[in-house]
Amino acid sequence: MRCAEVITCGGAVAVVASSAAGLTLGGVAAAVAVAVVLAGTVAALWFVRNRFRSWAYQERDEDLIVERGVMIRRLSVVPYGRMQFVDVSAGPIDRVFRLATVKLHTAAAASDARIPGLERDEAARLRDRLAALGEAKAAGL
Amino acid sequence: MTEPLPGRPRRDAPHPPVFDGSGPPGWAAMTGHGWRRLHPLSPVVRFGRAALAVLALAGLSTTGLIGSTWPHWWDVVLAVLIAVAGFVNWLVTRWTLDGVTLRIETGLLRRDSRQLPIARIQAVDLVRPFLARMLGLAELRVRLAGSGDADGRLAYLTEQGAEMLRARLLAAHHGLDPATPEPAERVVTSVPTGRLLGSALLSSIGLATVAVAAAVAAALSPAGLFGAAAPLVWLAIVCGMIAWRRVSDQYAFTVAASPDGVRIRRGLLGTVAETIPVARIQAIRMVEPLLWRPWHWCRLEVDVAGNPGREGEGTGAMRKALLPVGTRAEAGRLLAITLPAGPAPVLARPPGRARVKAPLSYHFLAAGHDPALAVAVTGRLRRETTWVPLAKAQSVRLVQGPLQRRLGLATVHLDAAGRHVRAEFRERRQEDARALVGELAALSRSARRQAAQAPSHAAAVPGPERQAEIV
Q1: Last residue of a domain, one of A30, A52, A74
Q2: Which of B395, B405, B444 lies at the smallest CB-CB distance from A106?
């Protein structure tokens, strides 16, 4: 999903940059600008791919584990009983690719359990399962 | 006042609103479901100051001290409007207490009906501003966890009435008969005025006040620099007022333990009495500022789930001072009544290579846990020790930045409800940190289960003394 975003942005920026450079400085400058922008896009793609691959989650009996991050590695363990509510959100690009983001909220603001880029059906399944488990194991504050 | 209020159909009123100035005779009927009003003098306290200010302004402008473009009668109209608004507000506000909920209804055009489940109470405060104190009134504030202004405020009741209502709410909260009288309390510690003044002086705002005052004196002494001194005088006044506010808020600070929870009383002109059920405490923090170190003073703060800040994510914490300034022995006694019972967890220090990552705070870093409690020490100049009962943990997180990965270190956070409420196990060995995440998750699960089985009022009874772990 992010890959699509990066490719579109990269392409658009390349077109704008090349036309601007071509109009003001001539053909060689336009080629250089396109090359630079394309290199940037590839680097961003690589970064996004790594970031995406690092995202992992595991549903255990009592808690959900979410792992993410390339530069800064983060791992969260959130017990189902502590869940306050589940958010499922999908932006316009998400919707084109039939994807959704599931986010688990607890009473602690820092609890960080967000799983982006799930297939829509998987997101719905996860949401229902989390809601059911949260109800079954709910604990007061 | 048994007829329906004008301009609004009555929706639900099986019992007509009972008017009885909430004095003691009317309290015999407390067990019924009748609606009650606040004390008739409430609008005087709530809006009296605004009306008086307007009238005073009007008086000043008629005597010609302040030039005003308004006609004078307009000020009087404004004061009357405020008075009428206050009276109407009192007229349309009513409350009732049945077994499990406190209900408050208010508003003339937009009715606001609030239901506060007693089982969810986080804390009960009795607030007495100066004017209310003169009239023998008190405001009862019921704190709940949740978003927005979920608090229930009853302003004002008679002092006696508010105390009785508080006793009822807390008794019902602990699953007892609401008629149970308020249990006896044991005063644990109080803060002497001298120490409070000293601590205020040695805080940043106190030092700023002294510095600005000294600058004013220096500017005035040659008598030629008066122009430069004038803005400084204002600054000194502002700083002094902030410092004074701190002192008057915390004046005569007394902490007492009772089966209801921890009771805090404080205040010079206006007083506040807070009651926090022990089972509702999310975390306790001890702060030892650099300047207080020669006297071995510390400050204790307790976090309760409640009133969040502006941004709405998660349940913000409510931070209350448990001890504005005290000795370590006093802090130890307070920790003993507020934390789960047991011996103090053994603190472990991070490995020496953590000095590279945290050169300024390495000297304080330490953390440890036992089956019921996690303790973490952090801080650069001032030492901050945080205790989080494992039964209150919301999530366990492991964070590892690039430098930490190179050094083979990682930080583990144990989050409790609130914005920045957590114990941080900083700069642990990578493999230890991984194991710690699993262990903390498992321990907090069993602690939670145990807490769910134990009735809530049992947790309020102080267990065997837990020694304050002070390195």
Answers
A1: A52
A2: B395
Q: Is the peptide bond before B156 cis (omega within 30 degrees of 0)?
A: yes
Instruction: Indicate the pTM of the whole model.
Output: 0.80
- Please choose, from the candidates B203, B162, B139, B207, the residue with its C-alpha nearest in 3D space to the C-alpha of residue B23: B162
Q: Is the pLDDT of residue B317 over 90?
A: no
Q: Are residues A113 and A94 in the same domain?
A: yes
Q: What is the mean pLDDT of residues B115-134?
A: 88
- Are residues B441 and A77, on separate chains, in Cβ contact within 8 Å? yes
Block means of pLDDT (10 residues each) for chain A, length 141 residues?
Answer: 61 72 74 85 85 88 90 92 88 88 86 87 91 81 67
Residue A76 lies in a domain: yes
pLDDT in tens, B433-449: 999 999 999 999 999 88
Residue A107 belongs to domain with CATH number: 2.30.29.30
Does residue B212 carry a pLDDT above 70? Answer: yes
Name which of B313, B320, B312 is nearest B280 in CA terms.
B320
Chain CA centroid to CA B278, Å: 14
Are both A78 and A130 inside the same structural domain?
yes
Maximum C-alpha span of chain B? 79
Residue with tokens 């159909």: B9
Asked whether residue A126 is domain-assigned, the answer is: yes
Residue B37 burial class via C-beta count within 10 angstroms: exposed 0-12, middle 13-18, buried 19 and up: buried
A68 and A132 assigned to the same domain: yes
Interface check for A141 against chain B (CB to CB < 8 A): the answer is: yes
Counted domains in chain A: 2
- Asked if B396's CB is within 8 angstroms of A76's CB, the reply is yes
Domain holding A80, by residue range, is 55-136
Asked if A73 lies within 8 A of B413 by C-beta distance, the reply is: no
CA–CA min distance A22, chain B (Å): 41
Question: What integer pLDDT is reported at residue B407 of this predicted model?
Answer: 94
Are residues A43 and A59 located together in one domain of the fold? no
The residue among B74 and B464 whose pLDDT is bigger is B74
Domain ranges (residues) in chain B: 193-250, 254-460
Q: Order of strands across the sheet with B254-258?
A: B152-158, B137-144, B121-128, B271-276, B261-266, B254-258, B186-190
Q: Is A80 on the interface with B (CB under 8 A)?
A: no
Instruction: Judge if A118 and A83 occupy the same domain.
Output: yes
Is the ipTM of this structure higher than 0.85? no
> pLDDT-derived band of residue B355, with 50, 70 and 90 as boundaries?
very high
Query: Does A35 map to a domain?
Result: yes
A44 lies in the same domain as A23: yes
Tell me which residue in B280, B314, B399 faces A108 most closely, judged by beta carbons.
Answer: B314
